[in-house]
Design goal:
- The complex is a heterodimer of chains A (292) and B (204).
- By secondary structure, chain A is α/β, with parallel strands linked by helices.
- Chain A has one domain: TIM Barrel (Alpha-Beta Barrel).
- In chain A, 42% of the residues lie in helices and 15% in strands.
- Chain A has 12 helices and 8 strands.
- In chain A, helix 2 links the parallel strand 1 and strand 2.
- The two termini of chain A are 21 Å apart.
- Chain B is an alpha/beta fold.
- Chain B folds into 2 domains: 132 residues, Rossmann fold, CATH 3.40.50; 61 residues, no CATH class.
- Chain B has a 4-stranded parallel sheet. Chain B has a 3-stranded mixed sheet with strand order 3-1-7, with no helix packed on it.
- The complex binds iron/sulfur cluster (2 copies).
- The site of one iron/sulfur cluster has 14 residues of chain B, from helix 7.
- One iron/sulfur cluster (SF4) binds next to helix 7 of chain B.
Chain lengths: 292, 204
């Protein structure tokens, strides 16, 4: 099922993110997803997230699909050139993966193989364009594909609370132009910023899923403020997390914060995308508290 | 060694707005410049307020001196069209933060010595100069990922994700385009790099 059909039906689409293991056993990932994420629409599978080498997104997507979930294949441009990316897309379509999310990807220097060659032959925009070409039955060079063309729900990301919000909006517009059909955002902790972003983004007419992280502690919040692009946790949330360490540790405070953000932003967006970062078990509770 | 080649006449004509001041760099010995073609084309261009032909425009001190002699003609012009390698265009653009500065040439690399290009500006000789879409800031050298379709999600406090001491190139480009009233450049068609003309590939 392509998740764009649900957006078209006016559904509020809930997705969450899982990361493949650094190893060959996916049982744990699949079990957790089955237990905590089977109630939601679809599950993103990251592509060597933060440039840390892991199992590929596609095989992990297949494992989830075989377990009855709807995976979204994340594809970055960091590790593969246009030939490898197109080839991966054809393979994904053959295996029945029809939801994708196209990203530029973090730089190789950010990860655990800082000496690796950063590829970036394409970027998120030209990758979306490439997918559209494949859907028209030809490759990026214009050579015809044999037989049926693939069809994907094509997603992209945007960072609404970035301090370069104009550059982000300009990039979002280019992504729409290149064929993006839905957007997932970087984690939002400031509803007002998100709402004012959406006021400008709604001109593009594409569904946007609010990005949500459940903050685990005051330390984690501060770390994100200092290190994670486009994420800013306001001081009053940090204070709330610091006030009662036991409650924060049990996830109660974090879930409350995340649920509050979802409630405030829900009228302005078309879904939520949860980056649980190991707290998959808290997702059902979060959705319940947020009233979804 | 570098080769500069004129962009197509259609492309150059599409860059023109209002009155034009032209700068030719007949450059250094390391750059081959299509002098005859450039002269022929310039004769056909309308509304030219003046032409400065010199060498080493990549040297800011030297360029400043030359520019001072053409102040009136430059002020009168709505834009500056530069016939030089990518470094030269960036040097000129650096002098005129509020004027539209366009590149009329693409820059390729030839095997061997790379040319004595100076200081802050850099050109990777990509063979399909993007400076006209980016307000005269080279996206291949100013952005750590060499992105040609806009900013990635990695900038934090205006700095690049790869190096907190480096300003995000696309943030600079965005600011520059806003300053010269050229934000429409961000609505150009999807750009796909052609590595067949790139120094990295064609050097073999
Ligand atoms: S875009 Fe950059 S690398 Fe390419 S020719 Fe222009 S200045 Fe040189
Ligand atoms: S942060 Fe800016 S300069 Fe760095 S890779 Fe991203 S777009 Fe390029």
């Amino acid at each position: 099922m392509r998740i764009t059909e649900l957006f078209d039906n006016g559904e509020f689409v809930v997705t969450a993110e899982v990361g493949p293991p650094k190893g060959i056993n996916v049982d744990h990932v699949v079990e957790e997803a089955k237990e905590y994420l089977s109630g939601i629409t679809a599950v993103n599978v990251t592509d060597n997230q933060s440039s840390v080498m892991r199992m590929g997104s596609l095989p992990a997507c297949i494992a989830l699909k075989n377990a009855g979930l709807t995976p979204i294949l994340q594809l970055t441009c960091r590790d593969r050139n246009r030939i490898a990316l197109q080839s991966e897309l054809l393979g994904a379509a053959m295996l029945g993966i029809d939801n994708i999310l196209c990203l530029t990807g973090d730089h190789t220097k950010m990860g655990d193989h800082p000496g690796a060659k950063p590829v970036f032959d394409l970027d998120s925009v030209s990758l979306l364009h490439t997918v559209c070409q494949l859907e028209k039955g030809m490759d990026l060079s214009g050579n015809p594909l044999v037989g049926e063309a693939p069809k994907f729900a094509k997603g992209a990301v945007v960072s609404p609370c970035s301090d370069s919000v104009d550059a982000q909006l300009a990039k979002m517009e280019r992504k729409v132009m290149a064929g993006a059909e839905y957007f997932q955002t970087q984690a939002v902790f400031d509803s007002e910023k998100f709402i004012s972003f959406m006021e400008k983004a709604k001109q593009f007419g594409k569904p946007v899923q609010l990005g949500v992280i459940i903050p685990k502690s005051a330390g984690m919040a501060k770390f994100m403020n200092n290190n994670v692009a486009g994420v800013h946790v306001p001081q009053h949330m940090i204070d709330a997390l610091a006030a009662d360490k036991e409650r924060a540790k049990a996830g109660i405070t974090g879930v409350e914060i995340a649920a509050q953000i979802i409630k405030e932003c829900r009228p302005y967006c078309q879904g939520v995308h949860i980056m649980a970062l190991g707290w998959e078990a808290k997702v059902p509770e979060l959705l319940k508290l947020a009233g979804i | 060694m570098l080769i500069t080649e004129l962009k197509s006449k259609d492309t150059i004509l599409s860059l023109l707005t209002g009155k034009v001041f032209i700068i030719n760099c007949h450059g250094c010995k390391e750059v081959w410049f299509p002098e005859e073609d450039a002269n022929a084309l310039q004769k056909e261009l309308p509304n030219v307020t003046g032409i400065l032909t010199t060498d080493y425009i990549c040297n800011p001190e030297h360029l400043k001196l030359r520019l001072s002699k053409h102040e009136a003609a430059i002020n009168e012009a709505d834009m500056i069209l530069v016939f030089s390698c990518g470094v030269g265009v960036q040097t000129v653009a650096g002098f005129f933060p509020e004027k539209k500065v366009c590149a009329a040439c693409d820059t390729y690399a030839l095997p061997g010595f790379q040319g004595v290009t100076p200081l802050e500006y850099d050109c990777k000789q990509c063979g399909e100069c993007y400076l006209n879409l980016t307000g005269g800031i080279c996206p291949l050298t100013a952005c750590s990922k060499g992105l040609v379709n806009g900013q990635c999600g990695g900038a934090k406090n205006g700095k690049c994700e790869v190096d907190p001491n480096m300003e995000c190139g696309w943030e600079r480009i965005q600011r520059r385009l806003a300053q010269i009233g050229r934000l429409d450049a961000l609505k150009c068609p999807v750009q796909v790099r052609n590595y067949a003309t790139d120094a990295e590939v064609s050097k073999k």
